[in-house]
Amino acid sequence: MTKHAVRPASRRQSRRLMLSVPLVAFALGSWGIGVAARAAEPATTGGLPHILVLATGGTIAGQADPRATGAYKSGQITGDQLVQSVPGLDKLATLNAEQVSSIGSQDMNDKVWFALARRIQDAFDKNEADGVVITHGTDTLEETAFFLDNVVRGDKPVVIVGSMRPATAVSADGPGNLYEAVQVAADPRARGRGVMAVLNDKIQGARSVTKTNTTSIETFNSPNDGPIGYVDTAGGIRFMAQAPGFKRTAYQLPAGEQLPRVEIVYSHANMDAVPIEDAISHGAKGIVLAGVGDGNSSKQALDALEQAAKKGIVVVRSTRVRSGFVTRNVEVDDDKNGFVVSEDLNPQKARVLTQLLIAGGVTAPAELQRAFAATW
Q1: In a 3-state reduction of DSSP, which class is residue 215?
Q2: Residue range 332-340: average pLDDT?
Q3: Which residues are designated catalytic?
Q4: Facing residues of 286 across strands?
Q5: Is 51 within 8 Å of 65 (Cβ atoms)?
Q6: Alpha-carbon gap, residue 229 to 237, rounded angstroms
Q7: 3-state secondary structure of 251
Q8: How many CB atoms lie within 10 A of CB 34?
Q9: How much is the pLDDT for 234?
Q10: How many Å apart are CA 280 and CA 267, to the nearest integer?
Q11: What are phi and psi of 235, to 5 degrees?
Q12: Rounded CA gap, 178 and 58, in Å?
């Protein structure tokens, strides 16, 4: 396992340099691309899998901005341009790119989530695609991945990919990441693994993957269980275990374009009840506590959360700590207070699951707790 986890820097850097040059040139409009990596219709000959690329914007589609060194604007390059700019994609799959949005992922929202979920499900139901790749900003990539993992039905692969450096950077990581994302989505062994994130030679599951560094390209990790596989430019794809062979029951999307309001409240020293009272006053249907340690908080905050739970507001205890599980009834009397614990889900993912559960009419603490446990 260690053998595959260690990646020679020179190999990754050489690929990144090779792939970033044409993309930078394309973005700057100074060089014409001659690679035909996209087809409007699914392939009928050649046996290549058909991969649907859904572009949402993000740094991977960013261009330099003169306001400061290293500054850029997200979502300036289209999905079509990204696909056409990466040499060799046409040898992996027949690709069709569609633009869903052109935003930085700090602005990701329910409307885009619903559009992605519906388009993916439609493509799978109509057998339009053998897999889907989503280009996405990194800030909320893990939340989009987890949301889709819980609502998309079927065993075809969905791969979400982004980059830490914009398309116009000298050492852009987006082209290499996109190449590997398509490589994974086109691989039959990727079936039945749910939504995956592919960045920096690693394949990570939607449940555990999280962003761990503000700027490094080595930012996405799965603290509790590690990557589910690796992409090696010489050795190909290596999954670390067989696909589980089953897919959890998917949650139905609620009517309309919006999920219930669920707020995250961050715990800290000398915390009072004000953030909790504020969330309630703004109509929160649920509150996720990003607690200290094992999902704990001050007595004032816990008292306020207990009162919220008595009013029918769903209260979930998560943790601001990077790894580990939140356990029931250890430091906090969850049974008495009517709380739910998030297991290993970080606050942002616990919020997504809480939204889906409330939207589906699940609000009783015992049922909610079973649902959190069932995501394994």
Answers
A1: coil
A2: 98
A3: 59
A4: 262, 314
A5: no
A6: 7
A7: coil
A8: 8
A9: 75
A10: 16
A11: -95, -5
A12: 13
Q: How many residues does the chain have?
A: 376
DSSP tag of 160: E
In the chain, pLDDT over 70 holds for what percent of residues? 84
On the 0-12 / 13-18 / 19+ scale of CB atoms within 10 A, 71 is exposed
pLDDT digits (tens, 9 = 90+) for 51-70: 999 999 999 988 766 665 56
Element (H, E) at 179: helix 174-185
Kindly report which listed range (132-146, 195-209, 248-262) carries the lowest average pLDDT score. Answer: 248-262
Q: Are strands 195-199 and 158-161 parallel, antiparallel or unpaired?
A: parallel
- Asked if the model's pLDDT at residue 38 lies above 50, the reply is no
Angle between helices 274-281 and 299-310 (to 10 degrees): 20
Residue 3, beta-bridge partner list: none
Q: How far apart are CA 315 and CA 323, in angstroms?
A: 20
| Strand ranges (E), the chain | 50-57, 63-64, 72-73, 94-103, 131-135, 158-161, 195-199, 202-205, 210-211, 220-221, 229-232, 236-239, 262-266, 286-291, 314-319, 340-341
Is a pLDDT exceeding 60 seen at residue 112?
Answer: yes
Helix (H) or strand (E) holding 274: helix 274-281
Structure tokens at 231: 């992409």
Tokens of 239: 């999954």
- Give residues with Cβ within 8 angstroms of 278, minimum separation 6: none
Nearest CA to 104 among 65, 67, 148, 146?
65
Q: Among 53, 203, 208, which Cα is nearest to 131's?
A: 53
Neighbours of 259 (CB within 10 A): 21
Task: Take residue 18 and report the two structure tokens written for it.
Answer: 């090779």
**For residues 185 and 89, is the Cβ–Cβ distance under 8 A?**
no
Report the range of poorest mean pLDDT among 46-55, 121-130, 357-366. 46-55
pLDDT of 41 over the 90 cut: no
Q: Tell me the Cα Rg of the chain.
A: 21
